[in-house]
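User: Hey, my collaborator sent me this sequence without any context and asked if I could get a structure. I don't really work with proteins. Can you help?
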Amino acid sequence: PWQYDQEVVDHALKMTKLHAQYAPAIISFANQALIDGTPINRPIWWLDPTDQEALAVDDEFLLGDNLLVAPVMEEGAVSRDIYLPKGQWQDLGHPSDEVIAGPVWLRD
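Assistant: No problem. I've predicted the 3D structure and written it out in structure-token form, which is a compact way to encode the shape of the chain:
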């Protein structure tokens, strides 16, 4: 760590904590995949294969059935539109925020 500035160290620590937080779930999904072939990373249409909006979204994915990942893919961007498929969704970064029912677009 002495070769990196504090910003890099802080980011690495944040990502390490995030990894530790989700590792048990990912291991559980891997075990499920061994049993029935269900993928660990699932397309968002996995929850409703008839959802035409979800079928068109190719830059989001599910970790299991309950964790939606929507990375910011545009260089320089800090936010993005997010499509929530059917279900109840809550921003884990802001757990006091309201639960949102999908399907719905959250427009930036």
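In plain terms: The beta strands are 41-42, 61-63, 67-69, 82-89, 100-106. You can pass these tokens on to your collaborator as they are.
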